[in-house]
Model the fold of this input.
Amino acid sequence: MGQNVLTNDFSWSKSRHEKFQDCRRAYYLHYYGSWGGWEDGAHPELRQLWVLKKLANRFNWAGSVVHAAIKDALLEVRAGRRPDGPKAIIRARGIMREDYKHSRGRSYWRERRRLEFMGLMEHEYGEPLPDSEWKRTWDGVESALTWFFQSPWLERARGLEPQQWLEVDEGADHSWFEMDGVKMFAIPDFAFRDQDGHITVVDWKTGTPHAGYEDQVVGYALYLAHRHRVEPQQIRCRLVFLNAGQEVAVPLDAETIQRFSLHFRESVQRMRELLVNAAANTPLDAPQFPMTDDLSQCARCAFRRACGREGVTFASLAPSASAA
Done:
């Protein structure tokens, strides 16, 4: 039997759009320049780009740990078990301690500790962070999980019949659909059918509200509408800010959907303008993807070394005491 061959097909997601907006060069390196770097025998430069691509910053790392703990708790409820909040928080702390040690030693260049985590760009670039900053990262995780386990969400989940459960962070292999012939990825954190037949989609957030979150959950709703054959207006969208303990309802009306669709088409068009062969998803050469002039974007980017901006950090960009 033949083996499945991975192909670098064109697709769209909110995260892809944001990377394209932030820096064309980072976009190129992430989606094209690092492709194949996971393979045995990959060229060292290609391998380096792939490893850098997989590095997270401490904020994304914290968010991923929170999301994983909530996913595990919801899956336990769906299986008929009662998750233990304090134990889940202790387990999350243990995971982060081991992740931190693995990353601090830059062991990710030799092996991967766990599938969802490679390492931290703060360690890769030797950013001088005090212990208090790392403690603040953990405190945010603990606060978010403490709120979740004390919130009504687990009780709501326990009240669902098996047929009401739709999705719990299913992953990219399952959560996509085609929009205007383009594969669009949308991975809801939690989706279920209410007693009245409507669908509710929930997106857990560990950060503070900012522009773009609404678009993300609208994309989830369009995916669910397509997969479950319902009208988008039948879907209720909820943003849940765990650290703030707040829930925000995102209205899904015809105007919102039209605005999202226009935004999607414009984004796809701009991306495809930088392809030499759209059908094969073949990009123009790297110089056609210019680096951003906004160095604050570089400070949060894992590809600094590849761009010759290795020394750019938030500390290096801060005004000096003498200039104050």
User: Anything to note?
Assistant: The mean pLDDT is 93. The chain has two domains: 13-155+294-317, 162-252. The two ends are 68 Å apart (CA to CA).
